User: Fold these one by one.
Assistant:
Number 1:
Amino acid sequence: MPDKPIEGEKRVFMTGNEVVAWAALAAGAEIMYGYPITPQNEIMHYWTRLAPRYGREFLQTEDELSAGFTTCGGVLAGRKAFTATAGPGNTLMQEPMSMAEAMRLPTVVVIQQRGGPSTATVIYSQQEVTMTTLGGNGEGLRIVYSTANHQELFDYTIKAFNTAWKYRFPTFILGDGYQAKMRESLTIYDPDIRGIELVQAEPFLGKPGVPGVDRPPTQLRNTYNVEEELYEVLEGYFKDYEKIAPEVAEHEAFGLEDAELVVVSHGVVSRACKAAVKELREEGVRVGYFRPITLRPLPVKALRETAEKVGKFLVVESAQGQLARLLKEAAFGCPVEMLELFKPGVGITAEDVVSRVKEITG
Amino acid sequence: MAKAVKILLAGEGGQGVQSVAEIIAEAANEEGREALYIPNFGVEQRGGVSIAYLQIGDEPIGAPKFQTGDIVIALSDRAVHRTRQYVGPQTLFVYDSSIEGIDDALPTQAKKILPIPAIEVSKKELHPRVFNIVIMGAVIKATGVISVEDARNAIEKKLGYKFEKNPQLRELNFRALERGMELVAQLI
Amino acid sequence: MSVQPAMPKSWRVDTKPHKFCPGCGHGLVLKALGQAIDELGIQDRAVFGCDIGCSLLAWDFFNVDTIQTHHGRTTPVITGLKRANPNLIGIAYMGDGGGYAIGSQHLVNAAARNEKITVILVNNTQYGMTGGQMAPTTLPGQKTETSPYGRDPEKTGYPTQGPEMVAAITREGAYVARGTVANLRQLKNYLKKALENQMAGNGFSFVEVLSACPTNWRTNAEETWKMVEEEMPKYFKVGEIKVPGGQKEGEANG
């Protein structure tokens, strides 16, 4: 029996990609399938170095379709399996994750967003929000955590495995090239010492006994003969999703009590927004901060409560309104004006946010 | 509340700007301070100027990249051209005095411009290999983000295995650090 | 009173009669596969993966754990499963479109990596489920919905030589054969050897099966058998192509 990957806890200084590899180990991930694409490559690099020490496996596949479908296969065999990708790889990943949605497979996928459309840049963006939350030819039956710093990258990668296996919806960690490549400090830990119970994986296929003799065969499909058959299955899924959504949804906010304008952002951009809002509040500007941590499902209740009482949202993102579209849907009917600071594929600084807020507040 | 110090280092591949940023960031982290370091990478980096964005403070750091540095260090002519955009009225702009033909490219809005003979000093007095440690000395003198002792400890941690084999290297590196600090001290 | 034909033990009785068209070759291939599973006693360890196309209709065919996947993606799903639990016997079942067109990269790379899985590819020279379009395996001159004047090899190439390709890119340890629904004894033998090869941990095993689609071929029984027995073998040579360390079927001893 190999030792635990992390004994107790320790403060470390590392890149986000290395954080993901350690978190996956700590979460009990047993196998990673992956295909090279920048900026997620070092997740595989660290995983392939660490995994053999702890009896874990890796397979480099021929493309992201295969990385996604082998991940589905690993999960079907009852193993905590994951993959990581970005950009055009995420586009291909939507096909296998659509199957995971259709069959309720607890896959975990880490996305490190890069510029788009197409090959664009290998650096950074928040342009994979629409695709990661609602991709594939489906209805978004998935869970997406958008992390903002390395501590969260560690915490939520562990959580993603638990969420996936507990609720049986494919689960995504939505990071970006900055988070992937930057180094900052965090505390990594053995989930045990924090009282985090790891949800056990179990096989879908190949359970003990002879099918048809000792037990019925497990036969999973994603194809249906008639419309009603599909409808019935989906109705069940939507009911489940609706039930778990309030449990799963997470957000972070401050300064809402007196705010006339609330800055809404997610992921790494929320770092700049948080700094800007703090600075502005110190100057006496009545501005608040709201950040959905789950982009799917969104924290709809908290969002609508905020949208009911403040006049204006300033939506800040490194994309041309991908978060804004989700917010508009969630806050539909609320008397809130949606203003924007969009910089698709480009980083956003606290200075950018401060000057945009001042432009609005005058 | 003191804001994080924003440091931008830029140079050609092989000049060691990334390793300098990493050593300083790790030293600050060891001190229990907040540090964030991000390189430019990928296609942007291949064949281009190597840039390191480094921030050190006492509160969690905001956005990983920034528009204006508190100190911007350019170590080649291309780096001077590339980093002008990061210079504001409060920026200390440091460049190597041996870079020729860049007088017109130097930023005009900087708070202060410091030419330092780091390349020459490392080549003539020390060893070209410790050029990046000279730069490291310059950075910590100009910003005070870490103490000399912590800088030494960080170098020891990073290169200790080399010092084991050749103790003279330790002296060489520590002297490079001192010289880098002196180069800046003379000008400030 | 009709006589009930003997079904393999591993067949799931309550889903019979099966869903394939009259005269379809799938039932015959799955019968040979069922017999092979029975004889090897692997009903409890086998996982059957089926593709999109007519092969998907086999999703509840056996008393064997089954996963119906996407078009062309059965190979990676079974690869992922086998990698995660090597005790299982992974069977990827697909058509010629799934294996040689949309999923060709998966077939090529699984073969090149010598994945310890068994791929069974049913070749009926066209896309059956979608209504009879040209496939990589369509014969020269053969009329399909997307080659209504007959396949012109100058414009669309010659039929893909799948097993030959797989044999060329696999190393020692792989098992590669082409069987036919016109010879079920031989086919069962090939499928059994392919599964045994996986069980022994030797390497990749691949069996293409020449099969019939009278519905889209628009052929009667006599024409159907003529196609399977005479026309198809002109382009697709039946027999074992690669056998690990051993002798191919029919080769003399000594």
Number 2:
Amino acid sequence: MRDISVILKSVWKSLFVFSAISVIAVSTVNAQDAKEGRTLFKAKCSSCHALDAKLIGPALTGVSDRHDEAWLLKWIPNSAGLIASGDAAAVKVFNENNKVAMTSFPELDETKVKDILQYIKEGEPKAATPPGGAVAAKDESTSGLSIAGIVAIVVLAIVILVILGRASKLLERLILLKQGIEIEEDVPLKVGVRKMFKNKKFVMFFILCLIIALGSWGWMGMWNTGVHTGYQPVQPIKFSHELHAGINQIDCQYCHNGAFKSKNATIPSLNVCMNCHKAVQARDKYDGEISPEIKKIYNALGYDPETQKYDEGKAKPMEWVRVHNLPDFAYFNHSQHVVVAEDAIRKAKGLQPTEPVCFACHGPVNTMEEIYQYSPLTMKWCINCHKETDISGQKNNAFYAKVIEAHEKIKKGEKITPALLGGLECGKCHY
Amino acid sequence: MKGSTLAMNKNKFVYTAFLAIAFAATFSACKDKRSTGLEYARNMYDPIAYNPDQPNKNFKDGKTAQLPPAHTKPVGFTEYDEYPNTKEGYEAAGVSMVNPLPVDTVNLAQGQHLFKVFCAPCHGEKGDGQGHLVKIEKFSGVPAYQTGASSRGGNMVDLTAGKIYHTITYGVNNMGSHASQISPTDRWKVVMYVQQLQKGQ
């Protein structure tokens, strides 16, 4: 009996293992097809098609239900030829999609097309691991000064507590001595406090504490008046610099392209967002829906992702909240700093070659989920940098070459005009 | 007994009072990051003239940034009307537009810098269609300059300067127009560099 049960068990086991292996084998064969198809889809199709959204061409999920495979095998490698041959279905598809011709793919043979169709049928495989770095540790930007302040306050509070505890015990004893222990009535708290304030030493101490506390509060308040360091307003779109400049590694200049050309770094207009977000809609994170934040771009532009048309009547400008705001009486020019002075600033601030020069003042923007003001932008801050930065050895710099040229002319006693020193630049007067 | 209760009450009172003060001091020391904090003479920060991104009641649509009036053009503006954003315009540009800039190291170096900033995120630094955004699967379907096929017919490697310029100006498929970001002169520098990449250099 025992033997039989052992044999049965082993048979069951081997059957189970066999079936498991065959299931895995079958699924890997399928996955192989779809995986190959996915690679091909990403390389050939996705510049115009998505699985579940209309891009340039129609959404492709369910395409095998809409058309039979034999037709698709003719259409995908040579759609233009099929339309020219007068195939009714082909002409219909062509007309339905605004007569935009689909690229011909003669290099896609039958197996490759079938791989792609298999991938479209199975859909995007579920991601096993969340995208790395998205939950990067947030840099708490509490400054050293405020931590020191908090610690000082706590220490002060403890010292005061200890001293007052002792003082109150002393008073307690005095009260008890004066009134005798037998007295039944409670002494109201008010009386106790009033007595405490009759103690001259205590009152002196209290006033001293008050003066120190209020004085330092007022002093710090005055220093921080008009200084916006750390200012991080809520923006109308939750645009993350951490995602765009950090994870996606898009250069600052792609959006703020004015910084290298003009006084202003420029806030990008929404057409710059649309360069990517026409296609990037983050649907995988919102159950196939367009991300609500990306939708705000579409709404502001009056853009309909279904028809891919703009309706200017529905457009409404995006009202970003300005973070960095110099007083209107101070002139600052971005290009002068990031183009002319780039090398000097890099050296002075010790930036890595991989970091953009912008980090010198704007801080590690690629780690800021929400943008905040990193530098104080006070006059003292400007002056200190202008005092310390070494700009010698700028020989191949067109700006300094001009300065040297002017100096040579002055030395030789030649005619020199304000125009030669940039006096005709519009911005010298009109800014 | 009563005495000790009294002592306890008083201690409690003193402790709570000072804890409250300490908390108040700590929290008032924390700056509210959503506000600019105390400001003196705010009007000195605000511009007297309108900034381009400010609301403006003087215009119907409430914006300061207005388009130039009809039939006018800004100083230094390069027109591109003869090559519209159509298949015909694209082919015409491919035939008749030539790069006005001489091929030299300065132009190529600037073209390379602009290419890295504006194109390489998708097209890759070598133009192989394997930019960072493609590698992390945010974008796909970017053809390689050396081996890919153009969606408008022919191979990427055969694209002429005029066709590349037309594509940068208007965009194609999932690539948007980069006309607002790259000036016409800079576009020609990028074209020059892209043509180097087509040759695999």
